[in-house]
Amino acid sequence: MIAFGIMTLIPDSEVSYLTEIAKSAKDFGMECCRFIPSQINPHTQSVRGKKFDSKTTQWVDDEFPIPTILYDRCFYGDDEHSKQCLPIVSWLKSRNDITFLGYGLPNKLELYDSLKNTVLAPYLPPTLAASNSDIILKELEAKEKIILKPINGSQGHGIYYVKKNDKTYHVKTEKQKQIISRIFPNKAKLLKWLKPLITARKYLLQPYLELFNKEHQPFDIRILLQKDEKGFWCERGRGIRFGTTGGILSNLSAGGSAAAFSEWTATLPPKAVEYMCSELDYILDKLPILLEHEYLPLFEIGVDIGIAKNGSIWILDLNSKPGRKVIFQTTPGINETLYQAPLIYAKHLYGMEQQERKSIYEKTLSH
């Protein structure tokens, strides 16, 4: 049987999703196991993890060789364990006897730099490294409203809206499904808050885009792309994410809700829908090709698209380890397809020469 391994940083991360994958593995001639990269013994190159027992449909503790095909679902933070696991995953990616379903994408700033000179440049919000407070203040003077995002952020964590008023500064963020708003009376007070923030973590800066509906809910379109059984890109589904009224995030983890794309477009003028869908098709056709030209092969991409009040279309985020919640909620009958997709693509890879996929390893480490 083919050994199909799933890597996470937290023992029970996404366990229900991974269990559904494992239930189908036997039908594809595969044996499923999951583990944390730091559980690899560097001397014996065996792993302490969990193997799926198809008879009992339970995960059981076991020790096994490093699987030949790996599905990387590690989400790295700034913690010590993430820093410990990153070089281990880098080492695994460098090995010719191990194949990853997807080799990941770099941080948001590097992604912007690699796409800003392509045909997709008009869809990218202008982006700068928020490397010091002078850059941030200069942009605030010019634009009055900006967004600060961690370059390695996910699920909307650590995003700040900053607005310059006549004399004061307004900062807004969302934490634990709550909108937190604060007014700084002057530049000195803003800087006192800002400097430790950008020192502790790397941020990027973008102009604030008016990406909300008539109810003042922030919203975006989440589209899931994956490779099929022949290695061709296909769209699995698209849905709309709505955030809290007056908030800045549309992520479901931040308390948002989801709606079917067709349900949402039914409320719009037909000409506007036709134009938008044409633009989306163009973006989705070009995007995977451009990314795989620049980086090592991918298996899936979560594409977040913003539609501004003036009708302009923006690529807000690209994720090589996307969540599926929006697609599950808005695409009827998609469950089995999404559970089996990693196994079907793994089967395809197993029949290929591994060196075809990764002749050179130096381009990327997934974040």
From TrEMBL:
Top-level taxonomic group = Bacteria
Q: Which InterPro entries match?
A: ATP_grasp_subdomain_1, YheC/D
Check the record and name the Gene3D superfamilies matching this protein.
Answer: ATP-grasp fold, A domain, ATP-grasp fold, B domain
For this UniProt entry, which residues form the secretion signal? none
| Protein name according to UniProt | Endospore coat-associated protein YheC
**Taxonomic path:** Bacteria, Bacillati, Bacillota, Bacilli, Bacillales
